[in-house]
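Before anything else, study the sequence and fold tokens given here and see whether the fold suits the sequence. Record follows:
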Amino acid sequence: MTGPVYLVDSSMYVFRAWYSMPDEFQDADGEPVNAVHGFTRFVLELIERHRPERLAFAFDVALESSFRNTLYPAYKANREPAPDHLKRQFGYCQAVCRALGFPVLADPHYEADDLIGTALHHVRRNGHRGLILSADKDLAQLLGEGDVQWDYARNERWGVDGVKPRYGVHAHQIADYLGLTGDAIDNIPGVPGIGAKTAATLLGHFESLDALLERVAEVPFLRLRGSARHAEQLKTHRDIALLSRQLATIVCDAPLPGDFGNGERQAVDGAGLDALFEQLRFGPLTRRRLQTAAAG
């Protein structure tokens, strides 16, 4: 069996590099590029240590133009917009991946999660399993038999059977779970008063949000603290629960690049890589590592 298709939630690693790398790195125009240097080191380490046969990088460029903002204008409204000097660096990070020949997934209407979900469903149909590099619990809903999610920074991996011990619900229940609890990070409201433990208990009993809402009259009779109050909240906020689930559900039919294949590497852009060396002012060690990675 061939190795998995590595699908990287790239924006997470760009942000991590931006926060962790000193701001002394500047490009040829004197603009900060600390996140690019840190992200490039992550990419090189991934290639050098694990030699992935198929590797794609998904980026968030739809932070303010996602279809979810149309459904719910307050979606992610609690987040401060990325400063301009970080936005520039996202473009450079994509350019590094492309110059090395790796597929880059980015779309103005779909988030990186949707692009990862679409790519995973695509390669799965062709007999491949996925390895998702991300610590984001939302992505656990995508896991099927043989797939793995990998928190790279903590070096923790889990498959579909590892989701329930980790989050209290099965992989296929994650979107329903977030429909109940909401998600403060993404400003998804959820049902007031229903936290993680209550949501897990309710889904453990009813199995799905749809069944829970259909049989909400049974909730007051459960051995669950505040069950009567939860039943009333579910009745009152039924539409919010369904909207929240819709916001939390990862789309798996977003557009993919026509040459995506199954995440195979394309030809290296040597001239583009040389231009990035100069523009980003990479040091000799990083240049050598990039040249080695480009040589394959």
Observations:
- The first strand starts at residue 5 and ends at 9.
- The chain has a mean pLDDT of 95.
- Residues 171-248 form a domain with the DNA polymerase; domain 1 fold (CATH 1.10.150.20).
